[in-house]
Design goal:
- The structure holds two protein chains of two kinds.
- Chain A has one domain.
- Chain A is 75% helix and 0% strand.
- Chain A has helices at residues 5-25, 34-44, 49-55, 65-105.
- The longest helix of chain A has 41 residues, at 65-105.
- Chain A is flat and about 55 Å long.
- Chain B folds into three domains: 1-81; 97-292, no CATH class; 313-479, TPP-binding domain (Rossmann fold).
- Chain B is built from 16 helices and eight strands.
- Chain B has helices at 4-25, 31-55, 62-81, 87-116, 123-154, 183-203, 208-226, 234-256, 259-282, 287-292, 313-320, 332-337, 340-352, 371-378, 389-392, 467-479, and strands at residues 156-158, 172-174, 325-330, 356-361, 386-388, 401-405, 435-440, 460-464.
- In chain B, the strands form two sheets. Chain B has a six-stranded parallel β-sheet with strand order 5-4-3-6-7-8.
- In chain B, α4 (87-116) packs antiparallel against α5 and α4 (87-116) packs parallel to α8.
- The chains are: A mainly alpha, B alpha/beta.
Chain lengths: 106, 481
Amino acid sequence: MSLTLTALIGSITVFVLAIFLGFELISKVPPTLHTPLMSGANAISGITIVGALILSNATFDGTETSFAAILAFLALIMATINVVGGFMVTNRMLEMIAGKKRKGGN
Amino acid sequence: MVDPVVWDVGYLLSASMFIVGIKRLSSPRTAPSGNRLGAQGMLLAVIITLLKMQSEGIIGWELIVAGLAIGSVIGYIMATRVEMTGMPELVALFNGFGGAASALVGLSEALKRISDGVPDPGVELYATWTAIGLSALVGWITLSGSLMAMMKLKGGFYVPFSKKDDRGRSRWISFPTWGPPWLNWVKASLLLASLALIILTIQNPEDKTYVYSLVATSTLLGVLFVLPIGGADMPVVVSLLNSLSGIAAAFTGFVIGNNVLIIAGSMVGAAGLILTFIMCKAMNRELFDVLFKAFGGSGEKDQLTRTKVGSDPEEVAMVLDGAQKVIVVPGYGMAVSQSQHAVKEFADLMESFDCEVLYAIHPVAGRMPGHMNVLLAEANVPYEKLIEMDDINSEFPECDVALVIGANDTTNPAARTNEGPLAGMPILDVDKSSVVVIIKRSLSVGYAGVDNDLFYMDKTMMLFGDGKKMMNELNSAIKEL
């Protein structure tokens, strides 16, 4: 895998545009949703799970690469905790806030 | 062999789901679907990655399956077992895991590349090593900073195996907040040192020592970054760290050359930063002051010289008898004592006497925005009775009794003056109601370390004690009327 300048510029373009998108994405958030939004966004930043998966594609063979594989394995566990726990806990919060709201409206 | 374009299209779809998911999370009606959409996008990204790896020839499934299984079980247990009061700490902890995962992926890729043979100087070397360095810097700061934030949100910890006191508790050590002005220079030098180390890794890509030194300086930087910040500002810090964990994921995307990481990471980074500003605004604080001026709970609290005689629940019940309008002001004390159900029972009792009960929610009540809403929702309090600060402040003058449960700084009239750490923070105008009842363990100062004049006013009745115990006593006193 060799990286060309064109590909790099392409990635940087994506990076910069996504930052602008993020800035524009949320403008008004009621305080009630600050914590769920933070928690949900945090779960999404667990996307690094993709990188951890790719690097966990290894076996312990006692060579030098084993240490790298151990690190990737740890990364995979942590990223999975972040993703699974993050979305579930956000869901729990939202169920309490929004679920009750619907009942209250009746 | 599947055309690689298929994977890229799949990742694009998953990134779009994240974008719409975040957008939906920022509005109450669509928030649950936004969260589900984000989770589905994540599942899609994982499935695509696994399929892609399968089609490209997989070496070993063991690590992958084990890692996913262990992580899912731990995440599931933590998310379902946590008490609602512990939610902010858990968010901080998950955030730390996310940052650590990004940092570890970067480190793992760096070690792998070093053992596979470093590329010749050129675009690939410079770009990849810069990305590895930056993802390490941001990722390790996120990890150590989030762990610090978690400890600060807890306020301290019990020392295991220490001698138990007469109430059967281990020794409690509260977590320090410490930051002389010169610490900022230390932080700046550490940051510069880290950047220099990144440049050194690019110049000497084979040398692992620089990579490990960078891990050390970044971790220390994260600790020092959060150390001087007081507990009341912790939500802002967690939000900022959340933004950083997104940025770390984006840099990791550059390391492994994957666009979905770059899109999701940088978008979360930017959206998290905006959320940080929104939260600062709600507290009327500048982000710069929060981060670089040590504030709140700095140890040197005012010695209390004034005293106030406590009331008893019967006395308060008599005052409540015949009240037409009561506003409940919950704070962190309600969360700690788990008294939300007792509060709901109180409201039901009062409503049975034709008294209107509303709840005043300060934007930073508790330890996280929305903390009180979640707790009260758990106790089945109707959503429309929770009124936000700007809307309820005009109602205090016509309210008979304001019942403050474990809130302090958010009601402190000192914030209206231009002096002290609370200066300018918007507060709930509790002092304008006819009678103020405050349930609190003592007269001690809040996180900001400022004495509260509200406690000493003639119309204030203090109920000293644990929130839940006091609420239950108050409820039985009302029933006996």
